[in-house]
């Protein structure tokens, strides 16, 4: 079986590859693709594999962008940390999933399911229509509003109004457009899987940025980037050299 892995975390991708080979050493991993752009280029110049394992959030966008740009004619097993709502969307469209962290027993079960259904899998135009429905359902699964406790009230905060999310002294804050600031009972890691990666970017271990509130970008020493937001931040927002190019690609997308 020839498979492709689309995953931007090298460790996770290698773990998945090793688990696949442990389950069946006849499996051939043709390539590990770490971004939407690399995946588009690969599928443009190579024949289709038999099966694709794909993360959802990649460094330069959602893997769904690949399926919009390239006609994928083979089954996809998504690797995701999304909640039960999103998983039901996958199942209703005959697309299997793996929850992170990856588990070898679940992986084997997914492979067995694929082999059982191989001859009956939907092909061509109907598969494309099903994929479009999955994309629509998953994009709707991102949080649009966060409820915060403020004094004796519960206040709904629209995420589109949040300039940036940041952590300071062990607390996580939402900074709004009118210099309103609220603490929330989530970590930045939890926000990573809750919010739309088209709208928000994890700049570093302290900040998640809303694209609509980015004022300008300056080159910093050692090829890093210094970000100025329309709302003053409590400290400098620096993007590392490694993240600089994915950040600029995200901002242009």
UniProtKB/TrEMBL annotation:
Modified residues (4-aspartylphosphate): 55
The entry's keywords: Phosphoprotein
One matching Pfam family: LytTR
InterPro entries according to UniProt: CheY-like_superfamily, LytR-like, LytTR_DNA-bd_dom, Sig_transdc_resp-reg_receiver
Domain HTH LytTR-type positions: 146-253
SMART domains: LytTR, REC
Boundaries of every Response regulatory domain copy: 2-115
GO function term, MF aspect, one: DNA binding
Name of the protein in question: Response regulator
Upper lineage: Bacteria, Pseudomonadati, Bacteroidota, Sphingobacteriia, Sphingobacteriales
């Amino acid at each position: 079986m020839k498979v492709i892995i689309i995953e931007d975390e090298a460790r996770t991708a290698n773990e998945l590859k090793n688990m696949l080979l442990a389950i069946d050493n006849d499996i051939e991993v043709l390539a590990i693709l770490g971004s939407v752009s690399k995946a588009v280029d690969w599928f443009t110049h190579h024949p289709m594999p038999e099966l694709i394992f794909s993360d959802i959030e990649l460094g330069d966008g959602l893997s769904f962008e690949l399926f919009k740009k390239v006609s994928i004619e083979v089954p996809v097993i998504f690797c995701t940390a999304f909640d039960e709502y999103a998983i039901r969307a996958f199942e209703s469209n005959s697309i299997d999933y793996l929850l992170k962290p990856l588990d070898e027993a679940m992986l084997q079960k997914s492979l067995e399911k694929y082999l059982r259904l191989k001859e009956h899998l939907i092909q061509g135009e109907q598969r494309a229509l099903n994929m479009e429905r999955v994309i629509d359902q998953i994009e709707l699964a991102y949080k649009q509003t966060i409820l915060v406790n403020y004094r004796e009230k519960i206040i709904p905060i629209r995420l589109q109004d949040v300039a940036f999310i940041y952590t300071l002294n062990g607390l996580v804050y939402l900074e709004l457009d009118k210099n309103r600031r609220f603490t929330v009972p989530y970590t930045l890691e939890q926000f990573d899987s809750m919010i739309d990666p088209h709208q928000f970017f994890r700049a570093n271990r302290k900040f998640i940025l809303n694209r609509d509130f980015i004022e300008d970008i300056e080159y910093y020493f050692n090829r890093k980037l210094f970000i100025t937001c329309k709302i003053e931040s409590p400290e400098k927002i620096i993007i590392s050299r490694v993240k600089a190019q994915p950040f600029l690609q995200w901002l242009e997308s």
